[in-house]
Specification:
Blueprint: H1 3-10, E1 16-21, E2 30-37, E3 40-49, H2 64-80, H3 88-101
Parallel strand pairs: 1-3
Antiparallel strand pairs: 2-3
Helix pairs in contact: 2-3
């Protein structure tokens, strides 16, 4: 996966920093944070706890690349001012990019609450 191409496809405009942690977290597998100055996003930080990543094809599982794209969609949401997490804006963007990237598991209804 070429991250730069994915960022362009999703239309994330602000810089993105990725933090990959080896340890387990009882809080989250991955998390997006937007850093704001005067109500404007200036940078995104996406943190992934590899100790929580389950690599497989079970009902609630995603591979690492799909997880990264999922969090990039949250970055796009924050830039556009959408606050509905996995709501309509998220699901519309998933429909736009999932087929192009061959990632049908960007949104998992039973997991993405």
């Amino acid at each position: 996966m070429n991250i730069e191409k994915v960022v362009k496809l999703i239309r994330v405009e602000r810089p993105v920093k990725f933090i990959i942690r080896k340890r387990f977290s009882n809080k989250f597998v991955a998390q997006h944070q937007a850093f704001m100055i005067l109500d404007e996003v200036c940078q995104h930080i996406i943190t992934i706890n590899m100790g929580n990543v389950i690599l497989g094809s079970g009902d609630g599982e995603r591979d690492l690349e799909t997880l990264i794209v999922h969090e990039l969609i949250h970055a796009w949401q924050s830039e556009k001012g959408y606050n509905d997490r996995h709501g309509k804006s998220f699901q519309r963007k998933v429909k736009q990019v999932a087929g192009k990237l061959g990632m049908p598991r960007l949104y998992i209804k039973t997991v993405d609450i």
